[in-house]
Structure formats: structure tokens, C-alpha cells
Amino acid sequence: MVPIANFMKKRGITGIDVHKLDKPEIPELGGLSIVFGLIGCSVVSMFLNLNSSFFLAYLLTILITAVIGVFDRLKPLNAVQKILLVAVASIPILFLNVYQPFPELPFVGKLRLTLLYPVVFVPVFVTVLANATNMIDVLNGSMAGTSTVSAVFLTFIASLLGRHEAMLMFASLAATTYAFYRYNKYPAKVFSSDVGSLSVGAAFAAAAIMGRLEVVTMFALLPTLINGSLILTSLGGVRERREIKIRPTILLENGLIAANLDKKAPITLTRLMVASSPLKEPEITRCFIILHFFSGFLALATFFFMVV
Fold first, then answer.
1. How far apart are CA 150 and CA 196, in angstroms?
2. Chain centroid to CA 216: how far?
3. Is residue 260 part of a domain?
4. Beta-carbon neighbour count of residue 133 at 10 Å?
5. What domain count does the chain have?
6. 74 in any annotated domain
7. What angle do CA 199, 42, 221 make, to 5 degrees?
8. pTM of the prediction?
9. Residue 155 and residue 102: Cα distance in Å, rounded?
10. How far is CA 94 from the centre of its chain?
11. What is the span of the domain harbouring residue 216?
12. Residue 266 domain-assigned?
């Protein structure tokens, strides 16, 4: 992590930490460390004679989203371009045929989606989770902290089901996002950028598809998905972060973050959390993480309803 941060800082690849009064410049593209960690775990897993097709699809999905993230940082994409390109990351899953078109629902059982699953569900699922994870990466430690919590719960659930490949994928996500969290938490020493958040979201989607844990994963990431839905609904469609002129929150002179009262400001979970009273940045991140703990237990309850 430190070598990556130093490399980016020397080359001027930095971003302004807008939630600090002194507006420090923070090295970006630190999410490459998450990508390298996930790739390393995938390669090791293939050498352990586990299902190599699963981990190859996992690795390629992450690589594609990482390339998109780096390209977007160096030559910004618009919202529609990014969505379409991220959908391409689902191709390794489809090409290597590492999915089963029978998602499981609690109380209902398996659905048979022979045509819709590969053509619609897989690319949409990868795109939604990747972009939703990107949208929650707005505060120091918010994406890394929440992803770590969700990945831990999903690792446990996959282990209970004996789905060892998915268990290792989620475990690698938990390990790499926690390692990144240590440098990204308040006050952040490095930013993930899209290369990290998009790759983490796509990795969640790929592991869920191959582990047949699509619904459980959505429950584990429920606050992340709700945040993304609130943003899209309030903006009336997809928008790039840099295209949003009116921010959902404002930084007060005492360093607290407050809700922007402008009616045109997008609605986000952050804005809702500070609607009644301004909060410090670490307090908001802590609220995000607590919400994901609750959604993790909800995912666990969903799992038990599915196996009963």
C-alpha cells in the first residue's frame, strides 16, 4: 500500500479530501492494492487444485473492472460509458460458464431463469454491485469498512454451505479490504479511486454468482444498494460524481458534516444521517459500518430461511 501511495503522490495522481477543513491532497488509485491482493489470492487458489475456472473468471472480472477504474481516473468516462464498460466485466463469468441459472429465494426455492439469467441478470448484477460500491466510497473508510463487514458475513455463510470457492473469494475480499481500510480510515492516507471500489463491487458479484448466493449477497450489501438507489432516484438517472454540481452535504467551519438544505441536492445515506444533526466524518463512517453489521445478520437470517 505505502509504495503505491508514494508512487501516485510523486506523479501527482492525487485528490482533494473535501471533508477536511485544510483540504489535504491524498494519493489516489490506492485501490490497486486491493486488486493485487485479490489477484494473488486467486492465483494461489488455482494452484491449490480448486475449481480453476471459477478463480480464473473471478480474476478476469476483477482485472477488467480495475482497468476501467484506472482509465476513468486518467481519462474520465461519463456515467453511461462506465456502466456499459463495467457490464463487460461479466463476460468471463458467462464465457467460462461458471454460473447456474437457478437463483435461490427464501421460502420459494430455486428459480429457473435459463435465458434471462445469463443475458440479463449476470451483467446487470455485476454492474449494479460495482457501481453501488463505488457510490458509497465517499468518506474515509466507508467503502473499505463496509465491504470488510459484508465479506466476513458472506465468508461465514459460504462456509456453512460448503461452497469452498465462494468462501475463499469472500475471505480474500475481507482480508484485502480490511488491509486497505487501515490506510483509508480517518484521516485517510490514500484513496481507493474507482479502481478499488468498482473492483470490490464486481468481486462481490462474481463470488455471489459462482457461489449461488445472489440474494444473500444483496441482503449483506443492502445499505450500499439503498444508498445507490437513493442517489439514482433523486438525480432522476445516472450521473457521474464529477457531474453533480450541488453536493448532498456541506462542511461546516467546525469540521462537522451537515446536510445540504438545497432541494436540488441528491439524497444519499450520508445526507440522511446528518439531516437532524451534523456529525464528524468518522462518526458517519461508523454508522455505515454498523448498518452493514445489521444487514449482515439479515443476510444470515435469509440464509437460514433458504435452507429450512
1. 16
2. 15
3. no
4. 30
5. 1
6. yes
7. 40
8. 0.95
9. 21
10. 21
11. 28-220
12. no
Mapped onto helix, strand or coil, the DSSP state of residue 61 is helix
Question: If 0-12 CB within 10 Å is exposed, 13-18 middle and 19+ buried, where does residue 300 land?
Answer: middle
Which among 120, 234, 140, 151 has a CA at the least distance from the CA of 191?
Answer: 140
**Residue 174 within a domain:** yes
Residues in the chain: 308
Residue with cell 455463510: 157
Spell out the per-residue pLDDT of the chain, length 308, in tens. Answer: 678 888 888 888 999 999 999 999 999 999 999 999 999 988 888 777 667 899 999 999 999 999 999 999 888 888 888 999 999 999 999 999 999 998 888 777 788 888 899 999 999 999 999 999 999 999 999 999 999 999 999 999 999 999 999 999 999 999 999 999 999 999 999 999 999 999 999 999 999 999 999 999 999 999 999 999 999 998 887 777 777 788 999 999 999 999 999 988 999 999 999 999 999 999 999 999 999 999 999 999 999 887 65
105: three-class secondary structure by DSSP: strand
